[in-house]
Design brief:
By secondary structure, this protein is α/β, with parallel strands linked by helices. The chain is built from eight helices and six strands; from the N terminus they run H-E-H-E-H-E-H-E-H-E-E-H-H-H. The termini are far apart. The relative contact order is 0.17.
């Protein structure tokens, strides 16, 4: 802990609580960390490596970076990530996937689906039973509000989600971590400047939700709006929810 930066110590504490609350890491786990090259995934990788050195349970770490034929000019090159992975002493894999159609178009869903499929294939090759994603509290809260407003459903990202009848488990150890902390840790740690930015990253709907949360937090004083929204997913009062879809009798 002494060699961690101030933001690193704060994030480490929150990751530890998430691991405990959701049983994210267990003895004998082989964990594949999905690394885009952005601040969040690099934060996750570095701190899981730290945790591995002192955790009471034994687990293995691997890293994977998925490249597509749809990317921005600022994507981290493989040689930069290779330096990061070898510096941490972590076995890694790179994989290229095609997501563009014959017209050079794609969608966020199709790109994400193919990248997720590639991750599962690498996890299977390495014998990993868990895949760690770098989604933080802001991602989870924003996704919940987007699904509520734009899709008419209550759903978000689970900190732990079993897939394929338990063969693979998705884990999100940063689920209690605010994006501001990963941003600070990235600067403190001098992560590579060529941060990978998804071309869909400026989604106007997500920006609207992000701005809404920021404004709500500003006018609410000391009230922790993001934490309240996050906790609401575990505080559903079923007796006050008895609404049928329009048109149903």
């Amino acid at each position: 802990m002494r060699d961690l930066t101030p933001a690193g110590r704060a994030i480490n504490t929150k990751i530890g609580k998430a691991i405990h609350d959701y049983s994210l890491i267990e003895d004998g786990d082989k964990i594949l960390v999905a690394v885009s090259g952005g601040k969040d995934s690099l934060t996750l990788l570095h701190l899981l490596k730290k945790i591995q050195s002192w955790a009471p349970v034994k687990f293995e770490l691997f890293a994977a970076h998925i490249s597509t034929d749809f990317h921005c000019g600022g994507c981290v090159h493989n040689n930069v990530l290779t330096s990061v992975f070898t510096g941490l002493g972590i076995e890694y894999r790179f994989k290229d996937v095609k997501v563009l159609d014959e017209r050079g178009n794609t969608t966020c869903f199709w790109c994400s689906w193919n990248k997720r499929k590639a991750l599962f294939e690498i996890a299977d090759e390495l014998g990993c039973n868990k895949v760690a994603l770098g989604h933080h509290k802001d991602d989870i809260v924003e996704t919940m509000l987007m699904n509520l407003i734009y899709n008419g459903e209550i759903s978000a990202m689970n900190p732990r989600q079993e897939l394929f009848k338990g063969k693979i488990t998705l884990i999100r150890p940063l689920c209690y971590v605010e994006e501001d902390l990963t941003r600070k840790f990235s600067k403190e740690s001098a992560f590579p400047e060529q941060l990978c930015k998804c071309p869909f990253g400026q989604d106007s709907r997500r920006k609207f939700i992000k701005d809404f949360i920021a404004q709500a937090s500003k006018v609410s004083g000391k009230m922790d709006i993001k934490t309240n929204i996050f906790r609401s997913m575990a505080r559903i009062k079923a007796e006050y929810i008895d609404v049928k879809e329009e048109g149903q009798s």
